[in-house]
Specification:
Length: 373
């Protein structure tokens, strides 16, 4: 029987989330405007304090966005110029941009096709005596294998940055991502698991000197108002965004639980051959995205679109294959990432969805593959 939807199944629904918190959000915005403290001040401090408590790190430095967080974080490590920094080949371009903009050289590392996260075996093979750091991405909200990565870091004396832009709330053995490496970076771009109403980001660390350096770089190299002992830049967390983020942070754990419950439905109802491998039992996936893989990706995407189901692709082109990186040459290509880019499809995921909607998506997909229900 043809299932017909009354309304679209949305990939993301920011309006619905706002409606559920409208009074609180409006109060927070009004309060910030009343106090007229727009740059720095109590709202920024309040959010930084609650976010560091959430992640369990000693420090949180609010910055303007997740890309700046990566760049400022990398700069704070004081690596020799032109160091090699290893970056996974499947990520958003911010991860690799930060390497170039801070004066270093990108080395791409392939992904594990079972998880789409960084492949530890390939990572080891990419380390040279010029390698000084690795930016690990907890892609789609799945923690990267930090234990093996930290071991490599120790063996080769490498710094670790965790790009947690997709992984608010993800954990390994109950410990939050962002608290394993030298520092962790977060984006609060509106569509992330914790999103602002514009751009925002943060760096978390438990290292005092990294925290101080990041704070200084993000605020013109200042120690005091006109005391600049280095040049920095302007990348501060906006106070209005901070007040919105503080309001939403209270609900984040519930939202992530909802994501996990929806992911369980997908895992139970979809053909196993479409699924990425289930997270290791000690890993808590934050399910920023629920990604499946199929050779018939484009066809399935169009089919779901006709049924009223919105989907996304993360990412359609692996980083080494982007025009921006052709100058790096063939040695930087990553076969698994290239292959995966043509097969991945991100299904609707988020606290805005009902179980019925996710069940309907599963039925459509099973219908597409001719699976009898
Ligand atoms: C969103 C994202 C970023 C960039 O964050 P912005 O706040 O948009 O600058 C960086 N890395 C990854 C993996 C992301 O998904």
């Amino acid at each position: 029987m043809e299932i017909q939807l009354e309304k679209k199944i949305k990939f993301l629904d920011l309006k619905k989330q706002y409606d559920s918190l409208a009074d609180e959000i409006d109060d927070a915005i009004r309060e910030t405007i009343r106090t007229s403290s727009y740059v720095g001040g109590p709202n920024v401090k309040k959010f930084e304090d609650s976010f560091k408590e959430f992640v369990h790190t000693a420090f949180c430095v609010g910055v303007a966005n997740g890309t700046d967080a990566l760049e400022i974080g990398l700069r704070s490590l004081n690596l020799p110029m032109q160091s090699e920094v290893i970056v996974p080949a499947n990520s958003f371009i911010s991860t690799s941009e930060a390497v170039t903009t801070s004066g270093h050289n990108i080395v791409f590392c392939d992904i594990d096709p079972q998880t789409s996260n960084i492949c530890v075996k390939d990572l080891r093979s990419k380390i040279t005596n010029r390698t000084k750091a690795i930016i690990v991405v907890h892609l789609y909200g799945l923690p990267a294998p930090m234990h093996s990565i930290l071991q490599l870091a120790k063996e080769f004396d490498l710094r670790i940055i965790e790009d947690c832009a997709q992984a608010h709330g993800a954990m390994i053995e109950g410990k939050h991502v962002g608290s394993f490496g030298d520092l962790g970076t977060f984006s609060f771009y509106p569509g992330k698991n914790l999103g602002a109403y514009g751009d925002a980001g943060a760096i978390v660390t438990s290292n005092t000197s990294i925290a101080e350096k990041c704070r200084r770089i993000a605020n013109h190299g200042r120690t005091n108002k006109y005391d600049h002992n280095i040049e920095g830049r302007n990348s501060r967390l906006d106070a209005l965004q901070a007040s919105i983020l503080s309001t939403k942070l209270v609900y984040l754990s519930d939202w992530i639980s909802k994501r996990r419950a929806l992911a369980d439905i997908y895992r139970e109802k979809l053909p196993p051959k479409l699924l990425l491998s289930a997270p290791h039992k000690d890993f808590e996936h934050a399910y920023h995205l629920f990604v499946i893989k199929t050779d018939r990706r484009d066809e399935l995407k169009r089919f779901l679109e006709r049924k009223g189901v919105e989907t996304g692709i993360h990412y359609p082109i692996a980083l080494p294959d982007l025009d921006a990186y052709t100058h790096l040459g063939k040695k930087n290509s990553c076969a698994h990432a290239t292959q995966s880019a043509g097969r991945v499809l991100s299904l609707p995921m988020g606290e805005h969805l009902s179980n019925d909607e996710v069940n309907a998506v599963c039925e459509f997909i099973n219908q597409f593959f001719g699976v009898k229900l």
